[in-house]
Amino acid sequence: MVKYFKVWWLMTSSSVQSFFVSRIGAALFLAGKIIRFLFFFSFLLLLFTKTEALAGYSFYEVLLFYFTFNFIDSTTQMLFREVYRFRYYIVSGNFDMILVKPVNALFRSLFGWTDILDLMTLGPFILIIGYTLFKIPGITLIGIISYIILIINSLVIATSFHILVLSLAVLTTEIDHAIMIYRDLIGMGKIPIDVYTQPVRSLITFVIPVGIMMSFPVKALLGILATPFIILTLFVSLLILWFSLYVWRISLKRYTSASS
């Protein structure tokens, strides 16, 4: 564990230095993230000037869904930015070099690049989530603990999806469309999934676990998610993680080196 933390720290240090080579580009990219966040936040403000509730949720409860989504999304982008560059390693043959190095190939492919710009947004998201909690009555300690556990659970599911995307890249050399489809799907979790009608709601909860990732943590915090569903959520995340690792092992067995 210590060895891999040191490896991650070295790769993160390298990525941070690369970001600041072009300071103007980094600043524009960060500004784009902030503007995109503010646009949807403004949309929610405008929406609640016409209604007092959305799918039964108050203004601050809906904001909590949105802020939680952004925290989970930013965390995954920060940790797994290397996935977006993985296709280059496959088509250029550089993945061969990753395989022969004394570091787990999956670890290197997932954590090889840390997005410092997303890291910079995590602190503000934590602060505004904490502020929003004070605006919602009835929050309990058990709810907060369940919220934290299910956020970690959401990160496990996000990790599994990124492993599947890497596996697909090894098998087909295609990754760009897969990662964009993933991002479009989880974007549906910006608001409570209760907004969507059936069968879309069931589809993005039990087939594509967007609801489990983005909505269940907040529902557990608000005390409207039954304990059996929390346990089921943890089981589902472990099942998806096992499946993604299984597919990854199959993809490595079928990998054909660019030099062969």
UniProtKB/TrEMBL annotation:
- Transmembrane stretches in the record are 20-47, 54-72, 110-131, 138-157, 228-248
Q: Which UniProt keywords apply?
A: Membrane, Transmembrane, Transmembrane helix
Q: Name one Pfam family in it.
A: ABC2_membrane_6
- Superkingdom of origin organism: Bacteria
> InterPro entries annotated for this entry?
ABC-2_transporter-like
Q: Does the keyword Membrane apply?
A: yes
Any keyword Ribonucleoprotein? no
User: What is this protein called in UniProt?
Assistant: ABC transporter permease
**Which organism was this protein described from?**
Candidatus Gottesmanbacteria bacterium RIFCSPHIGHO2_01_FULL_40_15
